Amino acid sequence: MSDKNYIISSTLKPTKLPRSFVYTSVRFKSARLPRGSDTDRTDSSSVINKSIELPSIFRNHSQARAPCISQNPDRGIDVQQLKELEECVWSLLEGIRGSMLIVSFEKYWEISRLIKWERFEDMFRDESMRRGLREAVILEHISVALTEILYSSKSPNQMLDSLLLNIHQNSLSSIQHVMSHNGTGEAFRDTFTKRIVMRRKDQITEIRQRNLILKNMIKSILPVLPTSYSMLILRILKNTDHITIPKAVSAIFPSISKMREILSDPLFPKEPYLPPKSEFSKEYTLVLDLDETLIHSCSEKGADKLNIRPYCSDFLNKLAPHYELVIFTAGLQSVIFI
Amino acid sequence: MLDSIDTDRLIFHRLYRQHIQIENFRSVKDLSKLGRDLTKLIIVDNIAENFKLQPENGIVIKTWRDDMRDNALLELAQILLEIVKKRVKDVRKALVYLRELMKRQVVRGDNVSLTLDNFVE
After folding, report:
1. Is B34 in contact with A277 (CB distance < 8 Å)?
2. Are B73 and A309 within 8 A, CB to CB?
3. Could you tell me how far CA A271 lies from the centroid of its own chain?
4. Fold held by B2-108
5. pTM score of the predicted model
6. Is a pLDDT exceeding 50 seen at residue A109?
7. Portion of chain A with pLDDT greater than 90, in percent
């Protein structure tokens, strides 16, 4: 019976499925590319090479680059870094489509970590703009995290594909937006500037609409994830207006590898945990904890001792005719024989 | 170990550590994942936080280690049998009723004696 699936023992280490793609073994070679070669995607034939090339961000960092937007280094954001992030999303998309062998999520998170997101948020005076763009960035990080967790080379990834496609669209729009933004919020003097501003407003509407689509896509993916993580993501989705980008990222990022591990664990239980009820099943179900509820196990002087709570077998015998009895325990039993 | 208390093989299903979600370093038993109707499901645990996702389905039982005079299971069996006898449609309502009843008895300083005699759904 399916109960077999529930056997766990300490001697049986959960066998991790091989990672479906090379993830960390490829180090970025310390290429010294001419400045600008990674700036624009004119060279689309070398997408594969690009993925393992050292992005400028990994190069000697002492030579700080001037922010592209503002002359004031305290206020600007490095558009170059945003472009690198966009490029990462693009190569992830190509990667999950199978046209590339190497998918580097690590690179994405590395670059994101270097971006001064608080400056990004501060750049926009217009509240609606700021919210839209911030939400887009948060959704992008969530989507990359979900892709990293759920991506598999063995099964189709249509959902992740369209997720990343939308993310990438947003990313391009955001960069365009940042580039056209002067960051000063000064009054618009002529009709030409007004038109540019109006175009920006259109972009924001586009981004916000896409954000909405993305949110729904993410919500539809969440149920396959462990509850703790899907609840975390839901909380972030609800609060994109109130959470800063770095905060969101630091909530999303740390559990990724753990989630992958859990999901690739062959012992990861498939829902529902219990087999369907049959016509012989009892109407009621009673879920019982084990340790410190029915029994108590402790080790004394190296010997395991098991105490059984008074009336325990009485309890089980009386209730078994009326309840489907389920033991649900967090205990660290070394070996359990079913 | 389980077999030592379940000599007659009364327990149908056993769920272990891998079914438990870890949240903020605390374990949570998510009852919605069992595939059972929550109106007919009760969880008994000595840690309330374990079922905090469905608190209305839970009964907290005193933590037990070695007190051989403990009779919590005896009392609990009585209540659980009453729920069956009354053919309660939504166990969560019965548990709310019992909780309220217990509160009133404690406030009045009465001995706690729980029954569904006056419970109507």
Report:
1. no
2. yes
3. 21
4. Rossmann fold (3.40.50)
5. 0.46
6. yes
7. 29
Is the predicted pLDDT of residue A58 greater than 70, yes or no? no
Q: Residue B108 is encoded by which pair of tokens?
A: 């009045």
Nearest to B2 among A274, A319, A327 (CB): A327
Tell me which residue in B5, B36, B71 faces A285 most closely, judged by beta carbons: B36
Per-residue pLDDT reduced to its tens digit, A145-161: 998 888 766 556 778 88
pLDDT, chain B, mean: 86
Residue A226: CA count within 13 A, CB half-sphere: 25
Cα(B121)–Cα(A42) distance, integer angstroms: 71
pLDDT computed for residue A82 by the predictor? 92
Q: Domain map of chain B by residue range?
A: 2-108
| Tokens coding B45 | 């645990």
CA quadruple A211, A212, A217, A221: dihedral sign:
positive
Residue B49, pLDDT score: 87
A235 shares contact with chain B (CB less than 8 Å):
no
Token representation of residue A235: 């909380």
- Contact at CB, A326 and B74, closer than 8 angstroms: no
